[in-house]
Design brief:
This protein is mainly α. It has one domain. It has 4 helices and no strands. The longest helix has 33 residues, at 88-120. The protein is elongated, with a radius of gyration of 20 Å.
Length: 174
Amino acid sequence: MRKWLRPRRGRAVDLSWPLRIAVGGAFATIVILTIAQVFFRFVLDSPLVWSEELVRILVVWITFIGAAVVCWDGTHLNVDVLFVRLPLPARRVLRAVNALLAIGFLALLAWFSLPLIEIGWYVEIGALDLPDSVYRSPALVGGVLMIVFILLRVFYRRPVEEPEEPGAFDKDPL
């Protein structure tokens, strides 16, 4: 097995790597489409009508899929001034509360996005002839992925409680 596929000692396997590849591919597509759009509009004087909508769809998908990836990594932005000063038992309780609140919010997001996705199937967006639900589906998909990754983080990939380096500490409140 290749070195980058093997989990490091004490570390979990990165279950989000297919999503990382998808986000990277979508980002590369956005860059290429934006350059092509500028070239076609200003050099050839024949703009690509569909490219702006595709870029917008990809940005929405990148946002939610990327949020799922950072849920797995535990690298969401946070203010940890109070968290790092708490004793270990209080940090554990706060982690549990944070996980429950995040899962509750994401469950509501996913649940209430279902009727919006259903309504979106009947409306087509401009040049691409795609249903409007393409814009609304990332909330459901990303919300479910975030819930799964938070649960996996809590039960499978526990954060390191004891720091390996002196003076270092675990700053991930989830």
